[in-house]
Structures are given as structure tokens and as C-alpha cells.
Amino acid sequence: MRIYCKTTTRLAVILFILTSLYLSYSHVRKKTNEEENFWLWDTLWSPQEVQTDRLSLNVSVSVLAGVLQQNKKFLTVGLCSVKRKKESYLLDTLQSVFSQSSQKELSEMVVVVHLADFDDNWVKDTVKSISDRFSQQLAQGHLLVIRVAQENYPPLTGLKRNFNDPPDRVTFRSKQNVDYAFLLHFSSSLSQYYIMIEDDVSCAKGFLTAIRHHIQSKGSSPWVTLEFSKLGYIGKLYHSEHLTLLSRFLYLFYQEMPCDFLLSHFRVLLMQSEVIRFKPSLFQHRGIYSSFQGTYNKLKDEDFVEELADNPPADVVTDITAYKDHSPNKAYDQGIEYFWGTSPINEGNFFMVVLHTPVKLSRILIKTGSEDKKDILSSAVVELGETVVRTEGSPKCFGFHKLGVLEGGRFEQRDISGTFHVPVSCLRIRVTDSQLDWVIIQNIQIWTEKQN
Q1: Which PANTHER family does this one have (predicted)?
Q2: What would the pLDDT profile of 255-280 be if each residue is shown by its tens digit?
Q3: Model-level pTM greater than 0.90?
Q4: What is the bridge-based pairing of β-strands 424-431 and 201-203?
Q5: What domains lie within the chain, and their CATH numbers?
Q6: Following DSSP, what letter does each residue of 99-149 receive, concatenated?
Q7: 98 in Cβ contact with 142 (< 8 Å)
Q8: Residues whose CB is less than 8 angstroms from the CB of residue 450 and which lie 6 or more positions away in sequence, other chains included
């Protein structure tokens, strides 16, 4: 604990110095010439200069494709890409970003791709591939492709081997930190918010709208990072006003630890001690082979849902006793929290979602239990009700029809409107066999039938 406190204090002091220097000396200048667009990152005292080993931060960022817009967007989606030994997923990732967004969402978004490989031929070929496939997005200012020349990078060999990583791994992750530092700094004035993804992900439909709703749900509560995936640094959202500081932070500690570790330290240093993560996840890792040596990578986010639930406004009620502040609504509001009910759970107990307005449903997904398969609701039936009577107490629902049963603590059914034609007022989970274990209801997700 003492060592941790000393480390945290030292980081805080260095960050304060870094911030002070930034406010005193740093500004971004943009210029154009007949050949290329550049963003100039003015010289600033770097950590190596503090240690008497001079390393300049006079960096020119080349815009290889796309049109810089004058108006500020709502969201920047930023990603870095390098040459892979096996499959490349960059074009598919970009296709997912654009195809899963409406025209209105695209008008509020800019995607910035940093081609961070030192192979000139690969960069040239990749720019051509992007230009051929996404010419419209480039012309409309929805997509920018940038690069920083190799001579602008700090030393990437002979670095400290923290975590006992082999030298090639240290070089890879250290360069990755610098890649993102340059990307973040370039993106700092493009939009109100910035989200970080990788070049091998797929996106949930309407992710920008979901992000906006989650930001609004925070109200005036301060935050540094909102997370929309549980994997690494995928889906990490920041205020753009913090990007310049974050880019300096990544650059300052580029050889110390991997990027996701540094992002966690940055969040804590800016006084957000707890992770704020939303469910379902909006981004899924799709790559099979890692960008580091092409090794097999099977990481998947189990909380990802490609088509986000509608979850129309509703009251959530239950006769199961909630543990502390794990209230019933937390199973329905699509946040990271959940309902947790204490035992005994008796036959006939219920958990019910009472919709404010009757709707036709197309799909329902219910998940119970913890990630390690504990506190599962073992025996229950899912029912749909047609009529609600609201009194001074809890609302009452009538006219129930059985839809199905939970299996392994889980229930999912699609195409509900094909068998249940009338608008639904209530969804009820009714316990059919008592259990001694407590019960966790992770989430209840409802999709409504869309009008043609």
C-alpha cells in the first residue's frame, strides 16, 4: 500500500507539472500548402528533456485523405492501424462504423484513422483501398486518414522491460502508446467527445445515439471516462477537452506500461476512482489474429449486442426483497448495475416490467446470475400481460399469456409479434420453484416492432 501511494503521488506530481507546462507553452497550429495538410504540434518540454535526454515534440501530422471540417462534431471515433502479418480488419471495421450509423448520426461524427506503420508501401496501398471503398465518406468529411513520420517518434528499442515483457513486446506496446498520443492530440479540436476503438471491431447499430443517451443520463455528475466495452481500451469515451492532456500523459509514460493500464491511471489521477461502464457493450472485438506477431486472439465481449434494445419507459416492480441499493429498475435501465434479491426466493414470487404505453414486441432477452454463474434464477416462466390497472400502490397487470421458460437462468425469444399480435402492457417473470440461493437479474432487454 505504501509503495502504491508513493507511485500514485509521483504520477500526480508529474501530471501537474505536465499540465502546467501544457497550459504555458502548448498550442496547435494548422497550416496548408499546395501538397498536403499538416497539424503542427509545437515543441514542449518532454519527460526525456526533464531527464536531460532531449527529445523534441515538434510533430507534423499529415492528412493523407479526407476533408477537415470547420464545424465541430459531437463525436470523434479514433483508431490506429498497422500492417498485420495475417488478416487485416481495418476496412471491415470502417464499414461497420458507417453502416451501423444513420445519416443523422454520421452528420454528427468524424472517424479518424491513424495509419501508424512505418512501411511506406503499406500506407500508400491502404490509403488507396480506403479511398476506393469510402470515397463518399472522405468527401463529406466523415472520415480522415492521418500519418506521423517515423522521425517524430521517440526511441522504441532498448526500453525498460517492465512486467518482464520481452523486448519486442515492449517495443510494440510502447510504440502503440505513442501512436495513440499523436492520434488523440490531432483529434482534440474536432468534436465534443472522443471514443477510442481498435481496427478490428464491429459496432452496435446506432451506437452514437446510445452514447448520447448515456452521457445525458450522467447529468451534471462529473466523469473522466465512460466505458462501452469491457475489453482493453475499446469503447473508452473522453471529453475532447481532456485529449491534449491525455496525449501528453501517454507520451510521457509511453515505455512504462500498456495503453489500457495508462488509461486507467489517467482516470484515477483525474479523480474518477470507479469504472463507469454501460451495458450492453457497443463494440465487439472481431479480430482472430493479433496485430502483434499475428498471434491467435480469441477475446470476445459477452455483453455486446449488435442491435440495441429499445426498453421503452416503464415501472419495474417485484415482491422479492432487494439487497441494499440493487433496486429492480437496475435490471432494466441498461447500465452496468443489476437487481440482486435476497433469499428465500419462493414459488409465486415475481419480477415485472409495466410499460407506460402498450407496445408490440419483436424480441425479449433476459439474463440472470453473475458472470461466474452464481445466483441464477433456476425456475421461472416469462409471461406477457395485456391490461394494467394503476392504483395508489404498485400497478396491477392482468390478462397474462405464457411466452416461455428460463433455461440456465436465461431467456430469449425473437419474432414475438408473429405469435403475440396484440400490444403488450407488462412483462412478468414468475418463479415456479423455490430456491435458497439469492437471485441476480442482470438485464431485461425489450425490442419493439418497427413500423414499415
Answers
A1: ALPHA-1,3-MANNOSYL-GLYCOPROTEIN 4-BETA-N-ACETYLGLUCOSAMINYLTRANSFERASE-LIKE PROTEIN MGAT4E, N-ACETYLGLUCOSAMINYLTRANSFERASE VI
A2: 999 999 999 999 999 999 999 998 88
A3: no
A4: unpaired
A5: 2-285 (3.90.550), 314-448 (2.60.120.260)
A6: HTS-HHHHHTEEEEEEE--S-HHHHHHHHHHHHHHSHHHHHTTSEEEEEE-
A7: yes
A8: 362
